[in-house]
Write a structure and sequence with these properties.
The complex is a heterodimer.
Chain A (H helix, E strand, L loop, with lengths): L7 H26 L3 H11 L3 H23 L9 H4 L16 H22 L3 H9 L3 H28 L2
Chain B lengths: L1 H13 L2 H19 L12 H17 L16 H15 L10 H21 L3 H10 L2 H26 L4
The chains are: A mainly alpha, B mainly alpha.
């Protein structure tokens, strides 16, 4: 069981507050900077502009730095870090995808899922974060996108995931 | 005078996406260090798709007595990142007078709605939105790298479609 700085009982109270605060910070700064991962790829490919792309790369760099530093401070909070080295099967993804599938299935799902996100995202003008921020700016089309995200969550866990378990080994 | 200049440069750096990028990366690690005792998968500090799924399914489960899937940590306590993003974006837009209702056609509303459903389903197939993929990659997950490159591939195809449509005068 992973343990962080806070015990489970205090974490349960802190989590709504801290996630709300983190979301607020990200939402505010994302509106100011136009932060968008898919926009980053798009601007890179279409115009060779790197401003948004560096934003995305900075996230990776910050993550690597942050995980490494905090892992040094409190390794118990980061089970399986560095995943490619210490996990039992280095090519399984960190939990989040439908569980208990073969490695090959995860790779196939990653390709399908990633590709789908990329193509739909760029045609509609942004990654989910950017769409949420645009709906906060008053863009009604993005509001419908966010509604789609919400309905999509229900659809995924009733229909899509059943299909995945049916097809994928 | 000095203080004014430092304030100005700070306000300018906020508009640089890389600043937010590093912030998200480091803060997500910190958040995990703080709260992982309550459960939840690793590399879960920030993810638009997963946190939206958690909030939606938690509410649906509560009201309709359902059993939609949730991440471990959300079974115990609400994860409110998305609410924060909506409020934060709104306040930023209002403060800088960039808030403006922009309407679209009914068709565009439908397209964006279906797009939202599609993007979330694609995201949960791989188990993350682009930002959690970046976090997972930072954590050492190589499948996440495959996911990120696939997103780039999808964007490349989409960009070609956009350029083709623009050349043909469709848009």
């Amino acid at each position: 069981m992973a343990t962080g700085f806070l015990s489970a009982s205090s974490a349960v109270i802190i989590i709504p507050i801290i996630t709300l605060a983190l979301g607020f910070l990200i939402g505010y700064l994302a509106q100011r900077s136009g932060f968008c991962s898919i926009g980053g790829w798009r601007d890179l490919f279409m115009f060779k502009h790197t401003r948004l792309f560096f934003g995305y790369m900075a996230l990776i760099a910050g993550g690597i730095l942050g995980y490494f530093i905090f892992w040094l401070i409190i390794p118990a909070a980061f089970p399986g870090f560095y995943w490619a080295i210490t996990a039992e099967t280095p090519l399984t993804p960190i939990p989040g995808a439908p569980p208990n599938l073969e490695i090959l299935s995860y790779i196939v799902l990653a390709i399908i899922g990633g590709f789908g996100m990329g193509i739909v995202g760029v045609l509609l003008g942004g990654c989910p974060l950017r769409q949420i921020v645009m709906s906060s700016e008053g863009n009604l089309k993005s509001v419908f996108f966010v509604l789609g995200l919400i309905v999509g969550a229900i659809i995924f866990h009733s229909i899509t995931i059943e299909i995945v378990w049916l097809i994928m080994p | 005078m000095e203080k004014d200049n430092t304030k100005k440069s700070f306000l300018r750096i906020i508009r640089v996406p890389a600043f937010l990028g590093v912030l998200i990366g480091v803060l997500s690690a910190l958040v995990q260090a703080l709260i992982i005792s309550a459960g939840g998968p690793e590399a879960y500090g920030f993810c638009v798709a997963c946190h939206t799924r958690d909030l939606t399914n938690a509410i649906v489960n509560a009201f309709a007595d359902g059993s939609l899937g949730l991440a471990g940590i959300s079974a115990t306590t609400p994860v409110l990142t998305i609410i924060g993003v909506i409020i934060g974006g709104y306040i930023a837009a209002k403060r800088k007078k960039e808030f403006k209702i922009k309407k679209g056609s009914i068709l565009s509303y439908l397209l964006y709605f279906l797009g939202g459903i599609a993007v979330l389903n694609f995201a949960l197939l791989v188990g993350a939105c682009p930002y959690r993929l970046a976090l997972r990659f930072a954590y050492g997950d190589l499948v996440a790298l495959i996911g990120m490159l696939s997103i780039a591939g999808g964007v490349a195809v989409g960009v070609s479609l956009l350029l083709y449509a623009m050349k043909r005068g469709w848009m």
